[in-house]
Amino acid sequence: METTSCYVTGLRCRECGRDYPAQAVFTCEYCFGPLEVTYDYERMRGHLTREMIVSRPQNIWRYRELLPLAGEPTDGLNSGFTPLVRAENLGRELGVRELYLKDDSVNRPTLSYKDRVVPVALSRAKELGFDTVGCASTGNLANAVAAHAAVAGLKAVIFVPAGLEAGKIVGTQVYGPTLICVEGTYDEVNRLCTEVAGKYRWAFVNVNLRPYYTEGAKTCGFEIAEQLGWRAPQHVVLPVAGGTLLPKVWKGFRELHRLGLIPHLPTKVYGAQPAGCAPVVTALHEGSDIIRPVRKPRTIALSLAIGNPADGFYVLKAISDSGGWGDTATDEEIVDAIKLLARTEGIFTETAGGVTIAVTKKLIESGRIPRDELIVACVTGNGLKTIEPLAGRLGATVNIAPSLASFEERAGAIVGSLVS
Ligand SMILES: *Cc1c(COP(=O)(O)O)cnc(C)c1O
Ligand SMILES: [Zn+2]
């Protein structure tokens, strides 16, 4: 790989603006605001070109000047650059002219958007000298930390709420981390991890490495713009859990615009949450910027079941700065949307993707998103990990003996299902 100069200037408090060195710190010691990575955009402008980016391998690191490493990346060389699918069938069904799906259900290696953020955090963890990494997770992050840590030769300690889907548990344990199932909600798990991170010298990707981790989510926005021929879409619908992805996709578009890599910034961002855990969308609909935590999330979208989102405030800010909106989806609507996406586009998404598609449909039907403009919906996870909510919702299979006679006995039903 070519050598590139580093444009990171440090960390800055998002609230009071105090500067910090780029270490494993995540909150301001003066005001407890979150810290964010800062870059020297003036120096980057003119040096980072579309041609440079396009000439590089198709992974998250093709935008490395805008990612927070001092040196060479050590992980994620096969992650990112997922398909941007032109969804003709779904678009027709929803009555819109131009709909695309950013398909992170086939991100690598663990089939979710978390394959963007984890390699950035782990590469930075190595630079900072850590040998053990961890996370608090609703499932997909656990999968990603376990897999990427295995490749990177790092030890992994992973905390999840008890009761996750079997696919998320098996899809974590198979990589050999220490997996700790906590009898409590995600928010309780997260609080525990903050205490553990403070006490042991471990790098929790979404706690003390959070400023680096979250930057990886910008690559979703960079890729969308590049794949659209270096232009930002008018409307982007994104799911919201802890609140990393949505503001960072918005930030990604703004960075490309600031650097002159895209000419215009017409984008509005929209948030999607499950009705049984919608602290951000509730605040949005109430016109409040105070997010009241949901103590007991009740939804089949377990990967979005975060009652007290760390960056919920910044989700609201991105939605209001961009002029977007948000909505919720019930369990019923989530299952219907999973089936709709599969039936029209051949993409099997997990419950979180069902939330996004259901909310996209609602925002179009309610007129919040116009039917004749460019819309992107972000499908963030894979359906094979969350098959439980579909049990009994797909109809019966046709079971027969291995003979033509048995086939013909049921032929009426079989042929009938094909002609109906
Ligand atoms: C983590 C996750 C999200 C978004 O989470 P944020 O914390 O808001 O970035 C969306 N979809 C899936 C499938 C996820 O695992
Ligand atoms: Zn501060």
Properties at a glance:
binds pyridoxal-5'-phosphate, 420 residues, 16 helices, six-stranded mixed β-sheet, globular, Rossmann fold, 13 strands, alpha/beta, binds zinc ion, 38% helix, four-stranded parallel β-sheet, 2 domains
Describe this structure in words.
This protein folds into 2 domains: 171 residues, Rossmann fold; 201 residues, Rossmann fold, CATH 3.40.50. Helices cover 38% and strands 15% of the residues. The chain has 16 helices and 13 strands. The site of pyridoxal-5'-phosphate has 16 residues, from loops.
Helix content: 25-40%
Return Rg in Å.
22 Å
Structural class: alpha/beta
User: Whole-Å distance between the termini?
Assistant: 55 Å
Proportion of residues in β-strands: 15-25%
Number of strands: 13
Bound small molecules, by name, code or SMILES, are: pyridoxal-5'-phosphate, zinc ion
SSE pattern, N- to C-terminal:
EEEHHEHEHEHEHEHEHHEHEHHEHHEHH
Q: Give the rounded overall mean pLDDT.
A: 96
General form: globular
Major β-sheet profile: 6 strands, mixed
- The protein's oligomeric status is single chain
The tally of helices reads 16
Number of domains: 2
Low-confidence spans: pLDDT under 50, at least 5 residues? none
What is the fold named in CATH at topology level of the largest domain?
Answer: Rossmann fold
Query: At CATH's second level, what is the architecture of the largest domain?
Result: 3-Layer(aba) Sandwich
Strand order of the largest sheet: 4-5-13-10-11-12
Reading off the top of the CATH hierarchy, the class of the largest domain is best stated as: Alpha Beta
